Amino acid sequence: MIDTAMLMAAGLGKRMRPLTATRPKPLVKVAGKPLMDHALDRLEAGGVRKVVVNVHYLADTVEAHLKARRCGLEFTVSDERAKLLETGGGLMQAKPLLGNQPFFCVNSDNFWVDGPAETFAMMRSVWDPERMDALLLLVPQARAYCHSGMGDFRMDANGRLTRRKQGHVAPFVYIGIQILSPTLLVDPPGDVFSTNIFWNRAIAAGRLYGVSHQGLWFDVGTPAAIPVVESMLAHG
């Protein structure tokens, strides 16, 4: 069973200003709880036991929060204080800490509500290492709350993903949760780069897949999104 996760918590949170002037974005509260804790609670409930957390902006605050958190999760910090490595570079630095088995990768500012099935169990049931290097959780464009954009991917009947074509709209939005095979994390183009590099390689090999989220998802990228999320949660 996949029981390890990478929690991406090193970003600067520029779009969340002024709330991130004094706190890192993962510790901005939504529905009475820091965004990071919403994600960690979901991971723990989903059977994850080991979480690697990368830190950069206000790193001491994030580390102190993790130490004070009482739960069944084992935390390891991947320290990016010296240099923010972006998502791909962050994964490469953390690779030795993640082990040699597939793992979840979750954005710490992600906010979702499970559908009929628990999210991580559902993704484990779809994951097939014989066919996949990465499995991305997607939501239909029409259900990407507080999100603006033209979509990210098209998905065929077998779940295989291709990129949105320039000037076109794609039906699915990536929502910050994925399963990655460590075999994909090779040959970095440098220290600082995006996970898109790994996805592009998987697409070229026909090994990037997706699965549609059946619950709710909110893009909590700006302060304006927070009351929208809280209102929908309060009123159903």
Automatic annotation (TrEMBL):
<dbReference type="InterPro" id="IPR050065">
    <property type="entry name" value="GlmU-like"/>
</dbReference>
<dbReference type="Pfam" id="PF00483">
    <property type="entry name" value="NTP_transferase"/>
</dbReference>
<dbReference type="InterPro" id="IPR029044">
    <property type="entry name" value="Nucleotide-diphossugar_trans"/>
</dbReference>
<feature type="domain" description="Nucleotidyl transferase">
    <location>
        <begin position="5"/>
        <end position="121"/>
    </location>
</feature>
<keyword id="KW-0548">Nucleotidyltransferase</keyword>
<keyword id="KW-0808">Transferase</keyword>
<protein>
    <submittedName>
        <fullName>Nucleotidyltransferase family protein</fullName>
    </submittedName>
</protein>
<dbReference type="InterPro" id="IPR005835">
    <property type="entry name" value="NTP_transferase_dom"/>
</dbReference>
